């Protein structure tokens, strides 16, 4: 079995940006998910568009897209990438009193877009929290995770059932 190592550490153990120059340019995609759990009344306010701060879904969607594009400014060792696609979906889960968030990010490049997808979900969730905190102090951001990646040396990796 191949020994696993942390790629962002050099031989001396110092943090560094990984050199991806020799890697092949391939189509890459990552899908991440998370959720914001809240009171049933809060979810109803969001879905009806009656929150005082405005359209939570539209603002959170745009915030997630913007966050994916700015990931290298937030995560110190991430490469700047030309993203070819970013989609953020928000779906209500009335039974779980939650908004389910999914981000799909694509590029054609030498490194993957997992961090961009995770950042998109994170910032969309934080935006929902920010816009709703005045009416629900008990919200929880949960289950942030990478669920799928495609392309690159490791190929397609499904980390979770869709």
From TrEMBL:
Underlying gene: moaC
Organism: Candidatus Viridilinea halotolerans
Enzyme Commission number(s): 4.6.1.17
Quaternary structure and partners: Homohexamer; trimer of dimers.
Pfam hit, one: MoaC
Name by which UniProt lists this protein: Cyclic pyranopterin monophosphate synthase
HAMAP family assigned: MoaC_B (MF_01224_B)
Known function: Catalyzes the conversion of (8S)-3',8-cyclo-7,8-dihydroguanosine 5'-triphosphate to cyclic pyranopterin monophosphate (cPMP).
Family under the similarity heading: Belongs to the MoaC family.
Domain Molybdopterin cofactor biosynthesis C (MoaC): 17-152
Residues that coordinate or bind substrate: 77-79, 115-116
Origin: domain of life: Bacteria
Keyword Lyase attached: yes
The reaction(s) this protein catalyses: (8S)-3',8-cyclo-7,8-dihydroguanosine 5'-triphosphate = cyclic pyranopterin phosphate + diphosphate
Pathway assigned to this chain's UniProt record: Cofactor biosynthesis; molybdopterin biosynthesis
Enzyme class of the recorded protein, top EC level: lyase
InterPro entries: MoaC, MoaC_bact/euk, MoaC_sf, MoCo_biosynth_MoaA/MoaC, Mopterin_CF_biosynth-C_dom
An annotated Gene Ontology molecular function: cyclic pyranopterin monophosphate synthase activity
